[in-house]
Amino acid sequence: MSEDNETGTSADLTELAKRRGFFTQSAGAYGGVSGFYTFGPQGASLKDNIENSWRDRFTLQEGNMEIDAPTVMPEPVFEASGHLDGFDDMLVECPSCGESHRADHIVEDNTEYEEAEGLGPDRVGQIIEEYELVCPTCGTGLGGRAIEDFSLMFETNIGPGSSSSGYLRPETAQGIFVEFPQLKEYARNRLPFGVTQIGRAYRNEISPRKSLLRVREFTQAELELFVDPEDGDGPDLDSVADVVAPFYGVEQQEAEDGEPLEITVGEAHERGLVADPWIAYYLGAGAEWYRSIGVDMDRFRFRQHLSGERAHYAADCWDAEADVSGPGVEPDWIELAGFAYRSDYDLSKHDEYSDEDYTVFRQYDEPVTVERPTVDPDMSALGPAFGGAAGDVADALAELAAEDPEAFREARSASDRSSGDGEKPRDGDAGEDGSVVVDVDGESYEVPVEQTGFAVEEVTESGEHIVPHVVEPSLGIDRALYTVLDHCYREDEVDGEERTFLELPAEVAPTTVGVFPLMDRDGLSERAQEVAADLREQGLSVAYDDSGAIGRRYRRQDEVGTPFCVTVDYATIGEAEDDSEGEPSEAQSASEPSSGEQPREGTVTVRERDTTAQKRIATEDLPETLVALRDGDAAFSEM
Amino acid sequence: MSEDNETGTSADLTELAKRRGFFTQSAGAYGGVSGFYTFGPQGASLKDNIENSWRDRFTLQEGNMEIDAPTVMPEPVFEASGHLDGFDDMLVECPSCGESHRADHIVEDNTEYEEAEGLGPDRVGQIIEEYELVCPTCGTGLGGRAIEDFSLMFETNIGPGSSSSGYLRPETAQGIFVEFPQLKEYARNRLPFGVTQIGRAYRNEISPRKSLLRVREFTQAELELFVDPEDGDGPDLDSVADVVAPFYGVEQQEAEDGEPLEITVGEAHERGLVADPWIAYYLGAGAEWYRSIGVDMDRFRFRQHLSGERAHYAADCWDAEADVSGPGVEPDWIELAGFAYRSDYDLSKHDEYSDEDYTVFRQYDEPVTVERPTVDPDMSALGPAFGGAAGDVADALAELAAEDPEAFREARSASDRSSGDGEKPRDGDAGEDGSVVVDVDGESYEVPVEQTGFAVEEVTESGEHIVPHVVEPSLGIDRALYTVLDHCYREDEVDGEERTFLELPAEVAPTTVGVFPLMDRDGLSERAQEVAADLREQGLSVAYDDSGAIGRRYRRQDEVGTPFCVTVDYATIGEAEDDSEGEPSEAQSASEPSSGEQPREGTVTVRERDTTAQKRIATEDLPETLVALRDGDAAFSEM
Fold first, then answer.
1. Vertex B121 angle, CA B151 and B309, to 5°
2. B96 domain residue, yes or no
3. Hey, which residues 397-416 in chain A have their CB within 8 Å of chain B?
């Protein structure tokens, strides 16, 4: 149940995350369960804001379609997708304490091997033996223990009886792929089109670890773009061509002392480093989006998959990575997102395994005339000749005509010749005396060509059916949230006191504005409640707080990243100020207000989180001012 | 796999739902799985809008906290909640075809019994026998078949090995209850406070049916309000006191020909029909909210649970119900939401089963001085006397002192007397010669009272620990969505053609605005794309459509409930109009624009769904106009 790898900032963050309601291990009252986290009020709001920001950018702005599929899916879907057979981790069980571990992690943590998963279970078992590796829990040697494939899918049973297995989806993508036959109708069969989904996904990890970073239940946001690899509109690459990011390509990774290239998306594409224009586009849009939610671009990079990491069907794949190490230690790069060119793998699999049609009709620029060989076997001859096999023979003739029409042509000329002269027919499919030969279940059947009804038609085709290719930007919401908290964590000093705050962008901050009555008397609370209600009516997320000194209330909001605080004081309600109380100041002592303004009647103090600067704003202008500040349409310093 | 009970409007709705991308049974390519639905682009957007509307009303506006807990939860949580033992349906399996059925449904469908679930499995078995009920699938008699308890929870296994059972949560509520010890800290231990959650819940139904209405995976929105039953702020009942709704109380249900009372929330509360003020408040807020998302209030009612329906711990419970029958048939009332006063049941259970503290400290108005009996046993005497049992004896003495201090007082006076006179001690806890007697594991131990260190302290207490009560409005998002589609479904005639449209409120409509170029030439498409991009930038949900006649494009948007359509024509781009094209009209023929206005340069046509009226609006005013129309801040008829 313990959290490992928690040091420095990370430990502070985990403590703050629990204390201030971002996230904590679930069901702590019952000892908790590894790999399951509950987002508290601040975390749930931050997560929701991140999801909505992604939805706005990658669904609404792009004109894509979003769907919402079940988290429990039936077995045939994962037979087709390959998850049922191949979605495993290597498990080794300690013979002494019975604890289960990831065998590849034990190898990576204790040897020079870096990508042990790719080595396969046999080799990993050998390495454990060679290096005499031991159980991380109890120290017992693991040499000679079996390395098992452990399925990462959670299995359950649907309905009564035990005949219908269901699985918690390991990715949201399958919910999109499996519905493609319907989705293409919604897109009116025009490529490219994109479908998104935000939702839960599950991996039954052997050893969950690193807080939110390796969990058993998480939220994904995936975009599946369906493209015609040879045709169709490309992305608006110009719109992101100037975005600069570190590109850590295969070449840079394999070079000694290779460093990521700090170049624009446009240059990365022109150089061929990011070959596919859609991948390049999404990398640019992705970098901009991560920046917008608070990821520090100095601790961010794009890393290309090495050939060993990539699935066999993926032509190219880039990860977005973030460094979430504490200060002064080695960078700890974690995967935030993957951007993969998946070819036609996903749709082809479902096309093969199901009875539905996963193709799209590609219209040719000009109709094309092609020759199409056909047969029309004379069943009144085949029936008596071949009995029960006649139907299969007819099918085999149709297949042969499509694959090797020459066999029929040669048989026909042999037949013509044999009726004319005595030349010997050729060997092979063209049998004796102008016949063709087909195989059915290992038997050869010879059919006179004139009984096959062979003909070649000229057909004009306006297009063809193709299986679309898939470009997939896929990201983890929980990891984005963790990274944003890590990158926005700040410590400074205000009025001689240490302060912890989260420099979250106003767009994603869980609470946009804290509203405080200066004192809980003289009608200040009632007025402050009204102000809070007005702000909520504008759709702002408001925290009302009337307990403790103003300075403490500021600190509470600082810690959860609330960008603005509003204090209702005597000037707000137009009454003579109680002399014993000054303007709200950062410290508990009544120092001068940092704005230096004279409080005007009907105004409130607005205080900015990052600078702690204060300004007085007319109460009536407050809702629209704060909406503008949240949306980035106004700057606090210029007010 | 088939959908039963689909007739009239309902069948039309299900067909439209699939064709236009609202919802359809999942994984249809593999034959589908009963009880699992995928929301297509329109449905996912409508669902998201309904969720956000609920969040705005019941989280943000109320100042409640929202959390986001895992869908997989460990077994001990459901041991405490009672779901592990009691969350079952009655299953009967056909001996002939092997099909499983809900035994109580078979009884309800074929006898006069209406609430068979409450009768228990034995009685249901008897009724099946008495009435000679048969398998609905194959007609074989079911008399004498065992009625089994079938758990409705989906079970899975967490991690390697089989020791750790997890369950897909049957309700989102437990994710809130179990974290109460942490949540009360976020609320700084002040009651009342409310916590919400929107998320997936699961019920492994024996026979899913009625489209979205009885499914195995669904989305709940739940609010758990934690209150002190004797104290604390009440709701702002005045704010909803004037809301009128049909209240179908126990009395009205039990009266012959009883009809719901059409009265205000305020009156329902004053009459004592809805006794709890919080329940009354949420009924009012709930009715207003359902109306706002498109539920027809003429097909809506609140129905109080009969005493047999209510859980034993629930003091009162009301359901919101909607009629989703087709026109001209018997009303088919379905449950949309439950509003329950759950007493301290939920938190008491977790307090009892876990080691955490589920109480909140209730401060008294005035400190109270109470007597508290204590013991301080003399272990140097008890040790030699009782050996290994001495510790348990000391604990038993402390218990006895709390429960029956008189025993010590009497023993003491007996002791005083026996040292003075020779009176006989009383029987019972006061033993011979001024001793007290305690039982430990069935043995009696007699302890001289002077060795117990018995004393009575006067203690001043400032408050006490109480287990908060829970008021729970709990609703199903999928059922709300289904009802909204059903209640907003319209058929009319426009320009002599039949039209189907959804009269969805603009706030929840999946798409707010359709944008069409009149023609796909002369730069109209490019201008229309710019208009669409501008609208998207304002956060509007936009559908761009350039295919087919304008009339057909209107119909497509009508069918998915898009409240406004914008057409970009020659006037928009300031060019002479192509004479062959008129203004966009409803029919394909070029009739006069219904607005009758002269097209001005730089304007577009905005067309309203419900009236099909058209107006010309300056392109530059378009984004803010449409935002105002969507948010209800402007009316189309007054523009």
1. 80
2. no
3. none
CB distance from A179 to chain B under 8 Å?
yes
Nearest to A293 by CA among A610, A607, A48, A40: A48
Q: What is the CATH number of the domain that holds B591?
A: 3.40.50.800
Higher pLDDT, B360 or A580: B360
Which of A300-304, A308-312, A416-420, B488-492 comes out lowest in average pLDDT?
A416-420
Which ranges of B73-160 does DSSP label H, i.e. alpha helix? 75-81, 83-86, 103-110, 121-130
Same domain for A41 and A189, yes or no, is: yes
CB-CB neighbors (< 8 A) of A179 in chain B:
24, 26-29, 38, 40
List chain A residues with CB under 8 Å of B175.
26, 38
Q: Could you tell me if A488 and A583 lie in one domain?
A: no
Distance from C-alpha of A350 to C-alpha of A179, rounded to nearest angstrom: 10
Contacts of A406 by beta carbon, 8 Å cutoff, 6+ apart? none
Statement: residue A8 has pLDDT above 70: no
* Position A333 in a domain: yes
Q: What is the CATH number of the domain that holds A18?
A: 3.30.930.10
In a domain, B390, yes or no: yes
Query: Do B7 and B64 sit in the same domain of this protein?
Result: yes
pLDDT tier at B593 (50, 70, 90 boundaries)?
very low
Residue in B160, B186, B547 nearest the CB of A150? B160
In terms of domains, do A528 and A489 share one? no
Interface contact B26-A70, CB threshold 8 A: yes
**Contact present, A342 and A469 (Cβ < 8 Å):** yes
Indicate yes or no: CB of B186 within 8 angstroms of CB of A21. Answer: yes
Answer yes or no: do B438 and B491 share one domain: no
B191 CA to chain A: closest CA distance, Å? 14
The DSSP-derived string for B297-319 is GGGEEEEEPPTTTS-TT-SEEEE
The residue segments making up the domain with residue B591 are 511-638
For residue A151, tell me if it sits in a domain. no
Q: Where are the alpha helices (DSSP H) in A489-621?
A: 524-537, 550-559
Yes or no: say if B502 and B561 are a contact pair by the CB < 8 Å rule: yes
**Chain A neighbors of B93, CB-CB under 8 A:** 160
Cβ pair B370, B377 in contact under 8 A: no
In terms of CA atoms, which chain A residue is nearest residue B511? A60
Tell me the three state secondary structure of residue B570.
coil
- Taking an 8 Å cut-off on Cβ atoms, the answer to whether B157 and A155 are in contact is yes
Which residue from A98, A206, A544 is facing B159, i.e. has the nearest CB? A206
Domain boundary pick from A481, A500, A519? A500
Give the residue from A554, A535, A533, A558 showing the smallest Cα distance to A545: A554
Residues A199 and A332 in one domain: yes
Contacting residues of A for B36, CB less than 8 Å apart: 70, 72-73
8 Å CB contact between A558 and A609: yes
How many domains is chain B partitioned into structurally? 3
Cross-chain CB nearest to A73 (options B27, B70, B161): B27
| Paired residues of A102 in beta bridges | A91
Two structure tokens written together for B363? 């401060």
B470 sits in which H/E element: strand B469-476
The two tokens of residue B303 are 């129905």
> What residues of chain A, 216 to 235, have a C-beta less than 8 Å from chain B?
216-217
CB contact under 8 A, B70 and A168: no
* CB-based contact, B466 to chain A, within 8 Å: no
Q: Distance between CA atoms of B457 and B460, rounded to whole angstroms?
A: 10
Are A34 and A183 within one domain?
yes
Looking at the fold, whether A186 and A57 belong to one and the same domain comes out as yes
Please state the ipTM of this predicted complex: 0.87
Structure pTM? 0.88
Domain termination site, one of B478, B500, B522: B500
Mutant choice from A72, A84, A188 vs B, greatest count of B C-beta within 10 A:
A72
Q: How confident is the model at residue B67 (pLDDT cuts 50, 70, 90)?
A: very high
